[in-house]
Amino acid sequence: MHEIERHRVILSEVEARPIVTVAHLTDVLGASEATVRRDIGFLDKEGKLRRVRGGAEAINPPSDVSLLGRPYSVSQTINTDVKRCIAKAAVDLLSDNMSIMISGGTTTSAMSEYMRGLKLQVLTNSFSIADQLIKKSKCSVTVPSGKIHREQNIILSPFPNDISNHTYADILFIGAYGVNSHGVMETDPQIVQAVMKLINRANQRVLLVDSTKFQNRSSMIICPLSQIDIVITDDGIDNKSKEVIESAGCRLIIVEKQKQ
């Protein structure tokens, strides 16, 4: 990522939450710690943010704090072709008149492109998926009540009871920040809570992750892999991760990366 673009993303992050850590920015930018610290130092001297121990804060801290993790607009630009291949494989599991739930994320959002010819009942907390399906499909679309988090393009309810408690589907599709032997991981407790509401509300649970997600780590666990029925990923997955998935009893679907 170019220096100017890194600076734009850093400023966007500090404007979205009170304090951002170097570790968080390293993950968001895909840059080294040294590079992030150098960028923070430069922006601090420019008076665009305030350098603090272990990270940075906004000059005027936000009153409305956004979710942890990469902004949707940044994630959308990473491994785009691979995510589309994974999404297409997920839609291949569907047929008319099925009821499905889709949790928000850039990989799951790519499913909407391939759902245009299907007639489905869809519950999703993704503002992007709902918007695309309403405009360009024959699907019946339901969204939960809650707050729209612009940075993540997702609708989350602060209340324990919403429409997801009264819904049961044939298949639930979810994405994740990371996957390993401990289970399926996310970065923000609100996202974990939202997915956990859905995890037992479907006959099958399908996880959509590109192979880079097997390198990511987080302390926030959504569920163990044993609760997932199908994992769809790309052929960049390593043998150790394959063994972890298969030993958990999951069916593994591997898509081939598109040749450039």
Automatic annotation (TrEMBL):
<dbReference type="InterPro" id="IPR050313">
    <property type="entry name" value="Carb_Metab_HTH_regulators"/>
</dbReference>
<protein>
    <submittedName>
        <fullName>DeoR family transcriptional regulator</fullName>
    </submittedName>
</protein>
<dbReference type="InterPro" id="IPR018356">
    <property type="entry name" value="Tscrpt_reg_HTH_DeoR_CS"/>
</dbReference>
<dbReference type="Pfam" id="PF08220">
    <property type="entry name" value="HTH_DeoR"/>
</dbReference>
<dbReference type="GO" id="GO:0003677">
    <property type="term" value="F:DNA binding"/>
</dbReference>
<keyword id="KW-0805">Transcription regulation</keyword>
<keyword id="KW-0804">Transcription</keyword>
<dbReference type="InterPro" id="IPR037171">
    <property type="entry name" value="NagB/RpiA_transferase-like"/>
</dbReference>
<feature type="domain" description="HTH deoR-type">
    <location>
        <begin position="3"/>
        <end position="58"/>
    </location>
</feature>
<dbReference type="Pfam" id="PF00455">
    <property type="entry name" value="DeoRC"/>
</dbReference>
<dbReference type="InterPro" id="IPR036390">
    <property type="entry name" value="WH_DNA-bd_sf"/>
</dbReference>
<dbReference type="InterPro" id="IPR001034">
    <property type="entry name" value="DeoR_HTH"/>
</dbReference>
<dbReference type="InterPro" id="IPR014036">
    <property type="entry name" value="DeoR-like_C"/>
</dbReference>
<dbReference type="GO" id="GO:0003700">
    <property type="term" value="F:DNA-binding transcription factor activity"/>
</dbReference>
<keyword id="KW-0238">DNA-binding</keyword>
